[in-house]
User: Fold this.
Amino acid sequence: MNRPKETISEDVIEQHVARRIRQVRAARGMTLQQVSDRTGLSKGLLSKIENCIVLPSLGTLAKLASALETPIGEFFEMQDLEPGSVFFPQSRRKRVQGRRSELNYEYELLVSGRKRRDMQPLMISINGESCKFALREHPGEQFIFMLEGLMDYVVGEKTYRVEPGDCLYFDARVPHGPKVHKNQKARYLVVFTGC
Assistant:
């Protein structure tokens, strides 16, 4: 028997992420200023994130998770998984379109749950027609495996041409980001640590 696919609108997910960030910060007894001091993000930006005016990029989510000492999956969690669970069906994944951020791309959390993990896998989809190039940095290390498309990926002073099947592994504290031209699309797996 086929299970019905869970359909949750992007707006609901975005509002949930904003609310969860605010809840986690409050549970830690931290002010916006304290989070700002730990992340280097302005209080104004943090307020916009918590009020769902700006959807944070992956790098910003990683900084917030590190500052709040929580796994990034905590921001997306809508229900607890069973302890020790390793199977996470595609129908339960949450996709977030970065429409309200300066970087317009979609990321999909591949494994959710509140359990602290040493690594966090995501699927990133970007379209060169709408994605703006910017470098980000966050704690930990990052691994990229290119699935579809073509892009340049900048890590510090180096630029790598990344094609399907190519891998890239780097220190995520070094400024990094995808550079996709207007006529390019890319889809890749990202696994990062340190949050």
Q: What stands out?
A: The longest helix spans residues 10-27. Confidence is low (pLDDT under 50) at residues 1-8. The two ends are 38 Å apart (CA to CA). The chain is about 25% helix and 30% strand.
